[in-house]
Amino acid sequence: MSIWWSLHLRREAASVPLARRFLLGTMESAGVDPDISFDLSLALSEACANAVEHGGTHGDPGDGAETWEAWEEPSGTASGQYRVTAYLDGEKCRIEVADSGPGFPARRALRTAAQQHEAEQHHEPELHDAPQPYTAKQQYPPQYAEHPPLTAEDGRGLCLIEQLADHVHFGNRPGHGGAVVSFDKVLKWREGALLMAS
């Protein structure tokens, strides 16, 4: 048995705890280990918060953007909305958060935290001097979100997702614009769980 669901949410702060509670309820009902549930729900909260903050067009959400009808294909995301999709099976949970904003910046080389620290020690120019809609770069193997300065008050969400999940992909929706953050984690189960792998 497996569980699959997709939520189409407005880019409002109240949607973040709603998505988190929906995921936690699903995993509780299925019998997922509480520590795994917590990690995935925190990662989901960070991805949703990014979609709420950065996921619209450069104009206001109500500036005549098309509506996102329930029967439309998810690629029809309007600027005032974003989509969360989750799939739980016997082995892992995969989550995707897609928005219709400007997406991640053009491809640039990624730096690990150690490389970033070394560059700062040698006073190399930063790769992220220009303002960016997100605090991570486009996917390159191995993938790392750009680590913000230690004194930054925000911008740590994508780095946190990388720490909480087993596999992470940051990318842009082809042909439609908008960012896609997808991640998965191997599941552990409580005894007698409904979806436990056989």
Descriptive account of the structure:
The chain has 198 residues and is α+β, with helices and mostly antiparallel strands. 27% of the residues lie in helices and 19% in strands. It has a five-stranded antiparallel sheet, covered by helices on one side. A hairpin with a 6-residue loop joins strand 4 and strand 5. Helix 1 packs antiparallel against helix 2. The longest helix has 21 residues. It is globular and about 45 Å long. About 23% of the residues have low confidence.
Short description:
The protein has helices at residues 15-30, 34-54, 113-121, 157-164, and strands at residues 3-10, 81-88, 92-98, 167-172, 179-186. The chain has 198 residues and is an alpha+beta fold.
